[in-house]
Amino acid sequence: MRNKKLFSFLVALTYCILTFSLSVQAQRAQLTDEQKILQTLHSISSHELFEYVKELASEKYGGRLTGTEEYNASAKWVASHFKKWGIKPAGDKGTYLQAFPNPYTLILKDCEVYLHVPYKKSVLKKYYTYEDEFIPGATSASGEVTAEVIYVGYGATAPELGYDDYKGVDVKGKIVLMEREAPVSSNADPELFKKWRPYSFHQYKLENAVKHGARGMLYNYGPISNPNNSYDKNFIYSHVGSVVVEDMFAGTGKKHSDVVAKIRKTLKPQSFSTGKTVTIKNTTEHHPDGIAYNLIGILEGSDPELKDELIIIGGHLDHLGYCYELMPGANDNASSIAVIMGIAEALADCPIKPRRSVMFLCFGAEEQGVVGSQYYCDHPVFPLEKTIGFVNMDGVGCGDKVSALAAENFPEFWEFIKKANEKYIHRMIRPSYFSNIARPRLDAARFMWKGVPTISFGVYGSRSYYHVTKDDIDTITPEILEDMAQLIFAAVLDMANQDSLDFRK
Question: Could you read off the pLDDT of 349-367 as tens digits, one per residue?
Fold first, then answer.
């Protein structure tokens, strides 16, 4: 008797659910196209997007360093949602994943930097504070080096420019103190900068230090974590900030800011021995045979002809892993992946189907040299010449204002964003021009170099943290996640349904 009542209840419940579902479908059928778009747009929830960021930034995924099992797990988690929403896999062999080789280095506990301070007949040790004053180099070798510190400016040997930071100083077996970037600006003098560009790469600076016999490096870079560098099994380095740099200059009769200003003004080296002795100790584990993955899903267009044209919505999934504490990467770049997920679900669910195909592309190894986007551009799963445009996002979770890098490069592309914002979102968006001549810092750069029209979005206006442990869920502004997802959803759907579209002209 009890089973019969239960069966009757389940039948009644199923009937109610089906009736409700049919009623919703009937109501949807009566809506105008604009009302259907609005209904889908408002289904995008800040709460849901915030939970996506929270999940990706959790310790479960270990900071999502490309090559690690934790990164792979985060990619599979995103892919599981794509599958649920009907986003088709577009990676290798029918999967969502596109594999490529990518070495990586794990930074473990027991890392330190300290200054040897002569005091009477003994030597004291001044230990520097993790994160505030130093962060281990994220591709450092494992080991310890104690040596004199030699300041070598920008670490460049450029005979065609008549410039050599290593001339007149002996760095063999020593630790070099070095500036990041180059002594000239890409904005101030683009043509001059192009000559200096090869010497602005982190990889060049490290490799040149090794070539000159240095054993270690204090890199004046933040201090922040950054795995975008070369690895040498005998070279130990850490990133340092102003406290360490000023200590190296103390008592030398030189002021750091004056020396840098003189290099930039004269383009002449100002290298010298600081007379200081420092110990750098790092504990690391290098994986030369690492395998990385891009995550690729596609929503095929509904038009038999236009589906052969593609719009990409993308951002990088990876972050920094542990260095040696967890780097959560909530804003950079779990925020963008959450927004991509929100857009993917909305486009898949929208009754108004995009006529062109839309790809959702989550890159690996952006933090390790913008490698994932380069690999995709060299091995596209959809012809680049048929790729109408690429909407890139990087750091879209902290603040209330939006930047649109390269919007002024592609005014017709930008018009769709502008129109969607004026119609639905009403956020302050700052369009800008992107010369794209410096070393690549964004996935957008790789696509622009291949001739793909690209706009890259970021968010600003509140306190955020870059490449440190404080980039966590507490910094995220849920409302901006929702607005970004709604903005890109509306703009891309509009683009995807145009009869003709060509941003390259």
Answer: 999 999 999 999 999 999 9
